[in-house]
């Protein structure tokens, strides 16, 4: 089942869950669906904000209350966990506001933050602000992309719009995988140099 079908079938609930589980891809698709008039734009944005906020609060709680569990200990040995803690130590407020925008640190960061002495109230406030910006930005990207497609090609039928959404999602996935590959190669290079 594709993201578009899920959004069409479950509406804003799919955006809420997808924003927390999948992230940007679902929210951008939601913005495209809002552009078609199938969902209200502000409904998509609010669902994205809430989904992202709730997911990161849950991850923070896992780090805070289950830091001694085998699962959290396994996560804590990953390089991304150490990177998150290092960034948090240098710029705590800025990092909490920015982590959901940093590729490779979005899911692991709230768990890492939960294992530190950062006060829960501070995390809740900064997480809410960051989620609000994130949800509106990525919903708007999808919504405005729909405007750009229609300006370039005229009003599209539903099937053409679904094809356009599919192309954007596949293209976005390819870009994300390319960035992931480049980051992985850069991280592997120092380790190879240290061994030689």
Concise summary:
This protein is mostly helical and about 200 residues long. It is about 80% helix and about 0% strand.
| Number of E strands | 0
**Outline:** globular
Order of helices and strands: HHHHHHHHHH
Number of helices: 10
Largest sheet: none
Query: What's the rounded overall pLDDT mean?
Result: 81
* Unreliable residue runs: none
- What is the CA-atom radius of gyration, in angstroms? 19 Å
The multimeric state of the shown protein is single chain
Walk me through what this model shows.
It is built from ten helices and no strands. The chain has 196 residues and is mainly α. It has one domain (3-155). The longest helix is centred in the last third of the chain and has 38 residues, at 158-195. The relative contact order is 0.14.
Question: What's the helix and strand layout?
Answer:
Layout: H1 3-10, H2 12-21, H3 24-35, H4 41-65, H5 70-76, H6 79-90, H7 92-98, H8 108-114, H9 120-153, H10 158-195
Helix pairs in contact: 1-2, 1-3, 2-3, 2-4, 3-4, 3-9, 4-8, 4-9, 6-7, 6-8, 7-9
């Amino acid at each position: 089942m594709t993201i578009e079908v899920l959004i069409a079938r479950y509406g804003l609930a799919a955006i809420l869950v997808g924003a927390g589980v999948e992230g940007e891809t679902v929210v951008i698709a939601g913005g495209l669906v809002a552009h078609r008039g199938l969902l209200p734009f502000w409904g998509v944005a609010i669902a994205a904000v809430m989904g992202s906020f709730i997911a990161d609060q849950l991850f923070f709680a896992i780090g805070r209350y289950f830091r001694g569990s085998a699962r959290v200990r396994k996560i804590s040995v990953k390089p991304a966990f150490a990177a998150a803690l290092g960034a948090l130590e240098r710029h705590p407020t800025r990092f909490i506001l920015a982590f959901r925008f940093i590729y490779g640190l979005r899911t692991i960061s709230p768990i890492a933050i939960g294992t530190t002495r950062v006060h829960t109230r501070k995390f809740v406030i900064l997480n809410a602000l960051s989620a609000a910006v994130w949800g509106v930005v990525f919903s708007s990207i999808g919504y405005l992309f729909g405007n750009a497609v229609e300006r370039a090609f005229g009003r599209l039928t539903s099937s053409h719009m679904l094809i356009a959404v599919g192309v954007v999602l596949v293209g976005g996935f390819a870009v994300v995988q390319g960035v992931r590959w480049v980051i992985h190669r850069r991280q592997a290079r120092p380790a190879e140099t240290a061994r030689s």
